[in-house]
């Protein structure tokens, strides 16, 4: 299994930190940016279409929870099941930047901030 590293390119479009994900660490996933099979992900598609590194770059929605592509039933269910707060991740990226976010997540070995 790989080691958790600090790499801002491993921040998913929705704010999750792929470098700390067990699927990524076991080399079963390439991470959001390189995972072309994730064409089903509307958040990823929107960010790529708008040339955003993540939803933190979106100027249309100050709060990503207001975006219908970001705040879906499945996303809320995922957040509940895994005690994950992607919106807090996006807010932290906005406040501290991508590099600091990656450092913080790698240091704490977290995929997401807790709800």
Describe the structure in your own words.
The mean pLDDT is 94. With 115 residues, the chain is an all-alpha fold. Helix 4 (86-96) crosses helix 5 (98-108). The relative contact order is 0.21. It has helices at residues 22-25, 42-49, 73-82, 86-96, 98-108. It has one domain. The protein is built from five helices and no strands. The longest helix has 11 residues, at 86-96. Helices cover 38% and strands 0% of the residues.
| β-strand number | 0
Chain-averaged pLDDT: 94
Measured as a percent range, the helix fraction is 25-40%
Uncertain segments: none
Number of helices: 5
Order of helices and strands: HHHHH
Largest sheet: none
User: How many structural domains?
Assistant: 1
Which structural traits does this protein have?
single chain, 115 residues, mainly alpha
Topology summary:
Elements: H1 22-25, H2 42-49, H3 73-82, H4 86-96, H5 98-108
Helix pairs in contact: 4-5
